[in-house]
Amino acid sequence: MKTINKIYINGAFTNPHGKEILPLFNPATGDRIGDVYLGDETDVNEAVKAAKAAFKTFSKTSLKERGDILVRLYEAMIAREDDLNAAAVEEYGSPIAATKGRTRYSAQLFLDAKEAMENFEFETKLEHALVVNEPLGVIAAITPWNANYTHICSKLAPAIATGCTMVIKPSELSAIQTQILTECFASANVPAGVINIVNGTGITVGAALTGHKDVALVSFTGSTNVGKLIERSATETLKRVVLELGGKSPNVLLEDADLEKAIPLAIAIAFSNSGQACHAGTRLIVPERRIEEIKPLLKKYTEDLKIGDLHSQETYIGPMVSQKQYETVQRYIKSGIEEGAELLVGGPGHPDGLEGFYAKPTVFINVNTKMTIAQEEIFGPVLAVITYKTEEEAIEIANDTIYGLSAYVSSCDIDKAREVATQIISGRVLVNTAINKENKAPFGGFKQSGIGRTSGAYGLAEYVEPKVIAV
């Protein structure tokens, strides 16, 4: 049993003022593995106070000084890479192959921010004025449990790069992972008060941060419903928000798609991170005339997925993060059955031989756009297959959602795929791939998938305020 009984404020690990204790579980077994002591509003006030005081000097540091900090943060994570991986496997239930990639990617975000910083226009000379992009101030970061290191580092890196200070409220379900990550940050010789981390619930710590008068911006990743609450709260002090919210991403297979490539890719996209991913392509939109070809391939590649042993390099599917999330997925699977969708593979309950919070990778066919499983974000390994008769109908189905975070297109004709991609309302459209290889590209959503952008110069721009000096 592990006990996480410290928070990190002003460069020191300290006991939280809050008294609430939350149990932590191994999602692969359902066993209790620890406890976390949660902070409260008093802890938030202390953390913001420290961040505000540190901002006075940190905002005036040079690019060289901040670049050196970013390198040290990267090195600190790499030095604890094995510990970080082990914690993510145990506490989140992430298969080791995916875990290793995410940990490396999270560390790399600090080097990416350094490169973006070195090329960012902090000052622009106009004919009669100087425009200076100044750091905003104290940033509040509220992060989810589905990629703990990535979400924290993606918000912290641009803060360091721009000279802002930060108070982080990570998911309380990720406390063991966060503890090790915080130890990495503490070892990187970052000035006291620049990074502050308070474990706690959204209703207590999150609410205190979003309403705090000394917080200049709230950067949140999570559900659309919570994002709306944060935006409403932020209006009281007119603070900025960057919201990366939910998705119900379409994956459009055009008529000419090579099914032997497109179907296994579609399965990988749908069940990425065990389906617990905002960008997962959980609506597969396919030509009606090819559905009989598609069905056996969907069944084959879903059943071929390795599920269970989290320490095997071949395992692709892990458990849901919690009993609550497992029950949510079960409710959606039952909803699909009750609303008349046809179960092709998977279904309710645990996979054979597995307990804990594992859910069966599930594929529904004969889904229409009005069904709950076609409209709502499930955040689990459930794929809804919808057919179309014409390309225009495929695009209409793809856009028939309140979300617009990610989308996918498969085709042998790249020009045609790009033409379709331009008509899909989404912050990102990937063609014939599951991975965006361009780290300088922005990430963020259209419609109710969010406000603002992260990554590269776009992420830095969210954390600065332009000031005009005219003489």
Automatic annotation (TrEMBL):
GO terms for molecular function: oxidoreductase activity, acting on the aldehyde or oxo group of donors, NAD or NADP as acceptor. It holds the Pfam family Aldedh. Residues 15-469 form the Aldehyde dehydrogenase domain. Keywords: Oxidoreductase. It comes from the Bacteria. InterPro entries: Ald_DH/histidinol_DH, Ald_DH_C, Ald_DH_CS_GLU, Ald_DH_N, Aldehyde_DH_dom. SUPFAM superfamilies: ALDH-like (SSF53720). The active site is at 244. Belongs to the aldehyde dehydrogenase family. This is Aldehyde dehydrogenase family protein. It comes from Mucilaginibacter celer.
